[in-house]
Amino acid sequence: xxxxxxxxxxxxxxxxxxxxxxxxxxPVERRQLTHYLATPGHHLMVAIAEGEVVGQVAAVVxxxxxxxxxxxxxxxxxxxxxxxxxxxxxxxxDAMLAFGKELGxxxxxVGTEPDNVPAKYLYEPRSAPAEAFxxxxxxx
Length: 140
What we know:
This protein is α+β, with helices and mostly antiparallel strands. It contains 3 helices and 5 strands. The termini are far apart.
């Protein structure tokens, strides 16, 4: 079965009429999707099989005012459980990293839970040693 990796942008909302379970943390809401796809610096690639979104990688370009390199922040990589271990996450990540390079990003970064073994296998071959950091969620 063929799995297409595709960049989606404004006007591509109909690709999300069929989304496999667990590709996103919550159901895709058309209004939010439209806003996301139209927001400069926000980027989304999907994996599509038989007309259904079976994977996705979301990223944001992060530019610094102080001369640090432009970064591609990989917000999320997800593949439907029924489609895992088929190389889809690797293909999605590789496509997004290549796209980030085209956008002028000099590096990319991503975080994951320390016990997320599949994510570690995906990221470690492309990375310097993992860095420890603490994350705080600040209420607004």
